[in-house]
Amino acid sequence: MDAVLRNRILLALGVTAVAVVGVMLQGRATANSRAELAQLREHEVTAVSAQATAAQRDMVMHDDDRKFQRTLDDDSERFGLQPIAAADLLAPNRYEHLIEDNVELSPGQRFDSEWVQIRAAVEPVQYIKRGAEIRAKHSVVYVENVHETPIAYFLDVRSADLGGCEVRGSRSHNALALLPGEVAEIVVCAGTKPVEIHDLQVMEMKAIGFMYLSSVPARAFGHDDVRAQSHQAPRQVRRCSHVPEERLREAVAQQLVEWRDLADYFSRHNCDQYPWVWGYSFAESPLESLPVDRRDIDEGERKAAQP
Hints:
alpha+beta
């Protein structure tokens, strides 16, 4: 075999060997690539699942935000108010406890503050006693909102000598909130004696908060039957039917819930759409979001607040 033929045979064998090795390496590389791809896909599925879970959670959160904003928009239109963004309800409501110790007012005397002006008077008032209509002199207080914003207020006022009078006349008034310049005429007791203010609390709120708060039954805030039945909300407002007024009244009486907790919550929520959240307390710093979610309240606090 001459040298030329031998070289051609060796070259052909070398090419074949290289091809075989190449095929083997390609097969091994393909197998490795498939394994790596499978591993990547396995991690990719996990990542996608996590993203889907987060997106679903965000979607739920955004749905709550959108629903709350739609409620605000619908209610603003129904109440005849300018639209308001949910973010505008997150800031703390300014609050002040004006009277904690008894303040006595004789007829003609007045209590003044930057929030309210209270004037004592004696006037004839009609009421029903044992089925008969009676007209008699009563001590009356006129409560005027002299503040620049709508306010929520709680006034515990009694006769200086008789205390609380279960049987007395009444006049319709908003027992929970007042617009700037609005006056509530509150009948205190039959007779001509001075009155005593035992408690007076006030809180600023938005116009829509005034409407929301006015729709809550007055008994829920601790008012007696006469004051509760005298409560008159604006005509655009429907009385809420899902407020646990008796349990709340008992919780306030037991000091498990404070008046300002209730006023603060209901000034931010439509009480038919968003029920009271047990354990909620007055917001002294901006809220993170609305509506308030019961899951954000510690379970122990929720239980401790319930009578």
